[in-house]
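Quick one, probably user error.
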């Protein structure tokens, strides 16, 4: 009888174990809740320097956020993070329940570690990241330390979003891990520590996080989920006591087999080997640059991280294509700028110029050459103009025309001394002819939402024409050179009459406007900055503002590009107005808003950008915060004005604005932090695009300008003509 009872108990245990390990059928609840992107304020960004590895990672809030594959225009993962549960009383994601720190492990490599400590002191998770230089995978070394006597379980929560769309994926348990796929790509998540249980479900309906939250246990193990917003879950073997470490490999490929093979190969190579090769690649890149300028030596890794961010922002399949940022600002929650996401993953000729001019300064002229080749060969249109932006393959995306984006590639060609006949005849001449025929009026100015006569755009147009004239003479085309110089001289003589008001609300002395609006759009009438024309600010700002009440720091392009001397009376007057209207002092120094009434930012409570009602009450309207790039541009001006100490202070401000991962944002918090919410210190990054390549480029350029005594990008041929050499 005793033996029979024992056998009965054993049989019950076996059956219970079998039931626990049973695999459930296809996941219900398709397609699940809508996929959204994570916040844009990344505190880590990395990729191998090897061209064989087509993955880029981003980090934020203690987790792995968007991963890009197979190019920088294609997010393929929303996030990957860990979940901890005691199986009885709590289940929590590390994003929500830990104090998070990020650490740059090597000042000459984009190598990061996250340390997430439970707020109740129950556990600590340490994650170190690399991408495998030999293939398209991300490796994560995970350490799980339990700081209590309680038994805790660790789960992996994986949210794929392949091919720039998280709503049409499928996922399954395969090869001992989790595999996801759509019509164009696949991912495979494997581990060297064996998963105890895996499941694929639909967000908010049948995913593992929803399952765990119900009763603190992973009860379901759906073998497959088809066509929806798939979220995948795995219970690991780590218990924080006996086994405390594992490596996760997230491999990508054109199909499931390719992704599995990639992940397996990276696991076989091992995290340490891949990380050493990753770091060696970045060390070799940094060693090939100029030594760090003296002006930047006081700011820790800020300079080298900026240089590496610019290099990492270049696509590997489409060389020369540098995106604006590996992030989707304002795209968390239900609001997105574009679906599938695009805006900051596009290549803008203006941002491309900012990056390339910085790379010339730091000693990576080869990268700048690739950028110019991309602009001329992949972006430029038959009529000589350039699109507002393109995808990384050069396909036009947004179709508006911005005249500074037509001019700046010419300036870049001059800076790179691309004086050869093919470059001149096939690219420079066409662009200069387009400017002369269509400027100085621009359908969109620097901030992309207004037409008119912009002093900043006109500065770029004049600089482009004078640089083109110099290249024309070097190619024996004197007639074109003289024609472009005549146009440029006329515009230089008229820019004040076109764009500086003498009866505006900010004083009796003339000051430059953001832009002067035409009285009628087609054809544009002659500009009059003294008329009270109203226009919509755009980007969430009010729908009607007197043009004379809107100023913008971009007028300094006139000085930086050599069109006006630093002590020009209208320049000096406008500096005072801009400081009074747009300047904000923070613990990190002074920064400036883009223009009056700017709405491109978060709401007063820190919620995402909202452009649905431009005339909503001021206490709910979104607010454009202050931009680090303006500190850099002011520093370049101050060098021309002989104010080196002030310019050095601007470099310190930009470095101070960097976050713990040394990423510099598009915007930092101003005098209006989110009301009632702690943790939004003035002068530090908002939820805007982070890292912004333009911000890092401006930091590098100012550092080298400080050592040179003047703006390193200023075309001498322009300054000698108008501002004095």
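Nope, works fine. Designed sequence:
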């Amino acid at each position: 009888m005793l033996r029979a009872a024992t056998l009965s108990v054993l049989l019950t245990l076996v059956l219970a174990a079998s039931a626990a390990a049973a695999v459930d059928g296809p996941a219900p609840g398709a397609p699940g809740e809508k996929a959204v992107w994570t916040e844009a304020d990344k505190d880590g960004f990395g990729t191998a320097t090897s061209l064989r590895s087509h993955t880029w990672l981003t980090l934020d809030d203690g987790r792995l956020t968007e991963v890009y594959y197979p190019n920088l225009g294609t997010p393929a993962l929303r996030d990957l993070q860990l979940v901890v549960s005691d199986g009885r009383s709590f289940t929590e994601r590390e994003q929500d329940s830990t104090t998070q720190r990020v650490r740059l492990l090597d000042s000459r490599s984009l190598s990061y570690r996250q340390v997430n400590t439970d707020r109740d002191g129950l556990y600590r998770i340490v994650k170190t990241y690399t991408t495998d230089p030999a293939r398209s995978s991300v490796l994560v070394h995970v350490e799980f330390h339990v700081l209590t006597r309680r038994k805790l379980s660790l789960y992996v929560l994986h949210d794929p979003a392949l091919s720039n769309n998280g709503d049409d994926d499928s996922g399954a348990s395969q090869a001992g891990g989790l595999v996801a796929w759509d019509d164009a790509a696949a991912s495979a998540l494997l581990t060297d520590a064996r998963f105890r249980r895996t499941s694929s479900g639909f967000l908010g309906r049948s995913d593992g996080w929803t399952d765990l939250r119900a009763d603190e246990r992973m009860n379901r193990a759906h073998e497959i989920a088809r066509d929806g917003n798939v979220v995948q879950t795995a219970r690991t073997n780590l218990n924080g006591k006996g086994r405390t470490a594992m490596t996760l490999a997230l491999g990508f490929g054109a199909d499931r087999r390719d992704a599995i093979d990639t992940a397996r190969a990276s696991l076989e190579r091992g995290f340490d080997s891949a990380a050493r090769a990753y770091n060696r690649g970045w060390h070799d890149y940094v060693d090939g640059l100029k030594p760090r300028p003296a002006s930047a030596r006081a700011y820790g890794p800020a300079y080298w991280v900026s240089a590496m961010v610019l290099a990492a922002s270049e696509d590997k399949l489409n060389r020369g294509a540098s995106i604006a940022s590996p992030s989707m600002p304002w795209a968390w929650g239900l609001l997105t700028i574009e679906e599938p996401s695009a805006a900051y993953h596009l290549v803008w000729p203006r941002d491309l110029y900012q990056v390339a001019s910085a790379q010339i300064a730091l000693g990576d002229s080869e990268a700048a050459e690739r950028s110019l080749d991309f602009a001329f060969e992949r972006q430029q249109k038959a009529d000589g103009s350039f699109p507002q932006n393109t995808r990384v393959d050069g396909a036009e995306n947004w179709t508006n025309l911005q005249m500074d984006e037509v001019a700046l590639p010419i300036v870049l060609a001059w800076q790179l001394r691309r004086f050869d006949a093919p470059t001149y005849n096939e690219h420079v001449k066409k662009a200069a002819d387009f400017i002369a025929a269509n400027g100085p009026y621009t359908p969109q100015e620097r901030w992309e939402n207004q037409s008119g006569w912009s002093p900043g755009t006109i500065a770029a147009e004049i600089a482009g024409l004078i640089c083109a004239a110099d290249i024309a003479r070097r190619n024996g085309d004197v007639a074109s050179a003289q024609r472009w110089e005549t146009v440029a001289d006329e515009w230089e003589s008229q820019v004040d009459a076109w764009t500086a008001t003498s009866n505006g609300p900010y004083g009796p002395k003339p000051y430059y406007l953001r832009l002067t609006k035409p009285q009628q759009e087609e054809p544009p009438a002659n500009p009059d900055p003294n008329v009270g024309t109203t226009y919509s600010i755009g980007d969430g700002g009010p729908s009607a503002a007197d043009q004379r009440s809107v100023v913008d720091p971009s007028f300094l392009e006139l000085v930086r590009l050599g069109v006006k001397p630093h002590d020009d009376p209208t320049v000096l007057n406008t500096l005072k107005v801009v400081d009074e209207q747009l300047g904000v002092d923070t613990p990190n120094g002074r920064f400036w808003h883009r223009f009056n009434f700017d709405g491109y930012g978060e709401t007063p409570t820190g919620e995402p950008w909202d452009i649905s009602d431009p005339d909503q009450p001021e206490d709910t309207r979104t607010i454009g915060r202050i931009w680090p790039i303006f500190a850099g541009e002011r520093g370049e001006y101050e060098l021309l004005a002989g104010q080196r100490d002030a310019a050095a202070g601007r470099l310190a401000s930009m470095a101070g604005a960097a976050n713990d991962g040394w990423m510099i944002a598009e915007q930092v918090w101003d005098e209006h932090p989110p009301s009632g919410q702690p943790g939004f210190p003035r002068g530090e990054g908002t939820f805007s695009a982070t890292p912004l390549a333009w911000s890092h480029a401006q930091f590098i350029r100012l550092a080298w300008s400080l050592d040179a005594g003047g703006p390193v990008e200023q075309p001498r041929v322009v300054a000698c003509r108008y501002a004095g050499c």
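Residues 478-499 form the longest helix (22 residues).
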